[in-house]
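As agreed, record minuted below.
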Amino acid sequence: MEFINVLVAAAVGWVYGAIHYMTLSKQWLAASGIECDENGKPKNGGSPLPFLLSALCMILVAGMMRHIFAMSGIVTIGGGAVAGLGIGAFFIAPWVVINNAYGMRPFMLSMIDGGYAVIGCLLMGALLNSF
């Protein structure tokens, strides 16, 4: 059952990412500096690789979160949500800020990517303990 929880949490994190980035696509494209064609779509886009890698990475993150929760005794939906929020806000988002700062990327890119990490981890943490 734990493996199912991990897969469901990863799927929800991945779907939330799609919603997050579709909602903020114009801002993210501008902040990331990706060149777009006349229709506003990224040039040289269309590869499924980023989508496959992000799905695999979501499984890894959800699996490690589940392990941390089990080792820490976090068993409630609320506890999982708070722990997930903390992981996103205090582990992943700061790392994104550091990487983008050294890459001289706009702070808005860190806000968009970090915001995804915070909310995505909150959702995944809640779901890991939901059934």
Summary: The chain is about 80% helix and 0% strand. Residues 77-102 form the longest helix (26 residues). The chain has one domain: 2-34+47-128. The chain has a mean pLDDT of 95.
